[in-house]
Specification:
The complex is a heterodimer of chains A (268) and B (292). In chain A, 35% of the residues lie in helices and 21% in strands. With 268 residues, chain A is α/β, with parallel strands linked by helices. Chain B has eleven helices and two strands; from the N terminus they run ααααββααααααα. Chain B is globular, with a radius of gyration of 19 Å. Residues 286-290 of chain B have low confidence and may be disordered. The chains are: A alpha/beta (268), B mainly alpha (292). The structure holds adenosine-5'-triphosphate (ATP) and magnesium ion.
């Protein structure tokens, strides 16, 4: 049985549907990369899984159980953790406090500390900067701590929403390195990425979301190899002549994107 | 010079109490994005409860706190549940002004019916007692009030940093979506935050009742003072509110002593207007969101 299965999911925020009947299946211990243009509804898919948003129709099955109407807390209890697109550390708490907050639902301080210690061995940043205020870290560093914090509950399913967005190339490379290192660790991962090539290259499966429906769901390698997909969704390939045609519109600069998404207030 | 130092001492003692009052307002804003203009009325309500328990049950105001504080906590949670929570988060900030203003008028109305508009005050045996410290006079009641305020602020700080619910409150203040994603039930936490905010009104009210004569209209003065302080301190910043409160306490006392008490009241508004013109984010404020 697959770990997560979305069937005909319809969801939205007010008038109109953003997701217009999504089908998506995640197999255990695989990485699936979800790509698609701006505003396609990628974040909305993650929110319907994590319980921030409840779908209007359809089912979200996790290990066979329908979780579509659960609150975030209940979803978390099942072992599903989301790292949202926006910055999600608590800026005035230290890196260490942030790590401990990752295990808030355990309500066991000692166990939380033990887990944070063991993650600190794996994430040098957490080890070196533990007493610093999270808000003083760079964007890339914050993302790494967010990823580390997401592992505090040792979840079954990890949802990452554009972890590399708005980062400098070096920080982006670090994020992908960490994400790649999660492979084979027993986690199932759903990764939303705009840096589609990098995302797909660490993934087993790829899915293309466009205008609220899943257009394609294929092994990542075959998506990467498909010239049509490349033309429409992957952006221009760095091509030897240096000229590319049909380049899709650039994403707006990181700063405008942040203000645009901060307003997001998912409705119940 | 003697006069000024004396005024500074008085101002700091008063400022400590202001700090307690303003912390309640800041907390409510932090957890719920609500500017609770009923905070002044809650303080006056506590003053009347202190008065009633003192006059009719002979309870010392400092002892009465043990009863009134939990009561105000529960009242705060109730108000949040009944009036604030139903507001949709998109327009909560604006609508909450109207709703909490209505709560303030409601409390004022009830107090006017029960206690009439006569000024009251609580005169304990030590109300007029003073100490002489190196030639400066310290009113004992004000000193106790200051100590109480500092103690409660300290407790609040410990609760926010050392307890599970306190960490949850800070998480909700700093990043509500992230808090939900980590399994914090934000609505429940906000209710507790609001309850704590109302609970701070209890001690503030007790001190107020011992230091100033009050009637049901006194909350207007209080809330304008408090709003000035939290704007000065930067909306939502606890540290900023405390600094601003001490600053205002001292400024008020010094001006009252050197120029005139009327001028002192006016200072608040002149300070507020000037500040809003030159530094809209507040004098000490970091930024509006998440400074607790
Ligand atoms: N809270 C909200 N209220 C109303 N509309 C929203 C809200 N959040 C998102 N939307 C709208 O829903 C659509 C899909 O948004 P979503 O954030 O899921 O897209 P996305 O694929 O994640 O885009 P991006 O690549 O920019 O992150 C967009 O048109 C967006 O404007
Ligand atoms: Mg998105």
């Amino acid at each position: 049985m697959s770990l997560l299965q979305l069937e005909n999911v319809v969801a939205g925020y007010g008038f109109g549907d953003v997701l217009k009947g999504i089908d998506l299946t995640l197999e255990r211990e695989t990485i699936t990369c979800l790509i698609g243009p701006n505003g396609a509804g990628k974040s909305t898919v993650l929110k319907t899984i994590s319980g921030l948003l409840h779908p209007r129709h359809g089912s979200v099955r996790f290990e066979g159980e329908d979780i579509a109407r659960r609150r975030p807390r209940a979803v978390l209890d099942l072992g599903i953790v989301q790292v949202p697109q926006e910055r999600s550390l608590f800026p005035l708490m230290s890196v260490w406090e942030n790590m401990l907050m990752g295990a808030y639902i355990l309500n066991d301080h000692r166990e939380a500390r033990r887990r944070a210690e063991s993650l600190a061995e794996r994430f040098q940043l957490v080890r070196d900067r533990r007493t610093e205020r999270a808000g003083s870290l760079s964007g890339g560093e914050q993302k790494l701590v967010e990823i580390a914090r997401a592992l505090m509950l040792d979840p079954k399913l990890l949802l990452f929403d554009e972890p590399s967005a708005g980062l400098a190339p070096q920080a982006r490379a670090q994020v992908f390195e960490v994400l790649g290192s999660l492979r084979g660790g027993g986690w199932t991962i759903l990764l939303v990425e705009q840096n589609a090539r990098s995302g797909l290259s660490i993934a087993d499966c790829g899915a293309v979301l466009d205008a609220g429906v899943v257009k394609l769901e294929k092994p990542a390698t075959s998506l990467l190899a498909d010239p049509e997909v490349a033309r429409l969704y992957l952006g221009a390939r760095r091509d030897p002549v240096g000229v590319s045609t049909n380049r899709p519109p650039e994403r707006p600069a990181a700063s405008t994107r942040v203000t645009a998404t901060r307003k997001e207030k998912p409705v119940e | 010079m003697h006069l000024v130092v004396q005024a500074v001492i008085l101002g700091l003692l008063t400022g400590g109490v202001y700090a307690l009052m303003a912390s309640g307002l800041t907390l409510a804003f932090g957890v719920m994005r609500v500017i609770n203009v009923a905070q002044g009325a809650l303080i006056i309500l506590s003053a009347y409860l202190t008065y009633t328990l003192f006059v009719h049950a002979g309870l010392d105001p400092f002892v009465a706190l043990l009863v009134i504080t939990p009561g105000m906590f529960v009242l705060g949670m109730l108000l949040q549940f009944v009036f604030i929570r139903p507001l949709r988060s998109e327009d909560r900030e604006e609508l909450s002004l109207l709703v909490t203003w209505a709560i303030a008028l409601g409390i004022e109305g009830v107090l006017s019916v029960v206690f009439k508009t006569t000024y009251r005050s609580v005169n304990t045996g030590y109300t007029n007692a003073t100490w002489d410290v190196g030639g400066y006079t310290i009113t004992q009641v004000r000193f106790y009030g200051f100590l109480l305020s500092v103690a409660i602020l300290g407790l609040l700080f410990l609760a926010l940093t050392r307890t599970r619910i306190g960490r949850a409150i800070r998480a909700v203040v700093q990043n509500p979506v992230s808090a939900r994603l980590l399994g914090i039930e934000t609505e429940r936490v906000a209710a507790v935050g609001f309850g704590l905010s109302a609970a701070t009104a209890s001690a503030a009210g007790a001190v107020y009742a011992m230091v100033y004569p009050f009637n049901p209209n006194s909350h207007y003065d209080l809330i304008s003072l408090l709003l000035t302080i939290i704007v000065l301190g930067g909306l939502g910043s606890l540290g900023g509110a405390i600094l601003a409160a001490l600053f205002m306490g001292v400024a008020e006392a010094v001006l009252a002593a050197t120029i005139s008490p009327t001028w002192a009241k006016l200072t608040f508004f002149v300070a507020l207007l000037t500040l809003l013109l030159i530094r809209p984010q507040g004098l000490f404020g970091v930024k509006a969101r998440g400074a607790i």
